[in-house]
Amino acid sequence: MSTPTIIATENLAEEMESWGLHHATYWSSDLNSWGSVSDWDVYFIDKTPGCTKDEAHRSLSLELNILLKKLSDRSRYYSKASALKKALENSDNDSANILLWKKHLKELESIAISDRVHRVCIVFDLTKQEIGRAEEQISEKSKKHKASTKECEISSSSSRSKSFNVDSKSKRNKDDEKAKRK
């Protein structure tokens, strides 16, 4: 076991990070700002949106264990960390903490619903856009089809008139030949 450390005020956050604390900036702040378990939870929720109570309390427990190992048991920091550890163990009975997490869960539900509604709106908008594109493609194909149909009709009618002309000429030629023979 390592020798407990007495906190030096210079580069406190760096020193605490070297201990393995993930939230050294929280602990290196003024001792009075450490507050309660609920204060930690508010801090943790801010740093880790969408977290659960278990995640916040597990993180706090790990951080406090490190602090209690590294701090001198005669320091005010140690006393505060020890008091927080006891408060954490009783947090399930802390009405303020229970209320905080109920409120946080409602906010998460609201965010989740909002996200789902937003996703549905996005999907709806994308579907509308896809339908619009499909309608444009159908319209373009329809125009092309109509144009090609007209070309076919024109081509067909001109070939009919040509064949009619050819047929008429050949009939006239036959009639002329018959008339000459007579």
From TrEMBL:
Domain of life according to the entry: Eukaryota
Region annotated Disordered, chain positions: 135-182
Biased composition (Low complexity): 154-167
UniProt biased composition (Basic and acidic residues): 168-182
UniProt name for this protein: 2598_t:CDS:1
